[in-house]
């Protein structure tokens, strides 16, 4: 029989104890002064966040979110992706002379459950929350658009250079913060 141990592929979406939660994610990068080798570094409007998913009843699932989309995608288990009730509610970028900062808010529905595979209960903000953020740029020399990502569990500081001309792009000195708002 497919699905989870109870035989049902997914829990009903209208769980009676479902609650709406919000998480705030902030990140900051130092960037070189804008000179003649302008690479147009920018935050891409998507992120991956680990969440405890009541639909597939697994904790710490990588959830893909894209700003402007009303639905997220949970990586599920055994590569069985499924739609998840989460969205990026805010995506605010602050660019200054030598830094760029991002503040994103993610709304998601959460309900209590027990992960039978890990034998642990779900928590509102998953036990060891983790985020991956994406940045894009365009190399003026090669005229190529490229992208890279930063994530919570990197050894810092970490610096990124252009894959074409090796121009420095950004340095991440601190992990992004993940904070439960409600
Ligand atoms: Zn799931
Ligand atoms: Zn370049």
Automatic annotation (TrEMBL):
Protein name from the UniProt record: Uncharacterized protein
């Amino acid at each position: 029989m497919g699905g989870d141990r109870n035989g049902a592929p997914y829990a009903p979406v209208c769980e009676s104890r479902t609650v709406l939660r919000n998480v705030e994610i902030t990140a900051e990068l130092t960037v070189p002064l804008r000179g003649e080798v302008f690479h147009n570094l920018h935050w891409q409007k998507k992120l991956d966040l680990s969440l405890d998913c009541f639909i597939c009843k697994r904790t710490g699932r990588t959830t893909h979110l894209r700003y402007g989309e009303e639905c997220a995608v949970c990586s599920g288990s055994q590569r069985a992706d499924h739609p998840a009730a989460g969205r990026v509610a805010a995506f605010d970028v602050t660019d200054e002379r030598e830094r760029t900062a991002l503040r994103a808010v993610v709304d998601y529905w959460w309900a209590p459950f027990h992960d039978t595979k890990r034998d642990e209960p779900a928590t509102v903000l998953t036990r060891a929350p983790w985020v991956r953020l994406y940045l894009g740029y365009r190399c003026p020399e090669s005229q190529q658009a490229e992208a890279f990502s930063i994530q919570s569990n990197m050894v810092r500081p970490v610096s990124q250079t252009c894959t074409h001309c090796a121009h420095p792009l950004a340095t991440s000195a601190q992990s992004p913060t993940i904070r439960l708002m409600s």
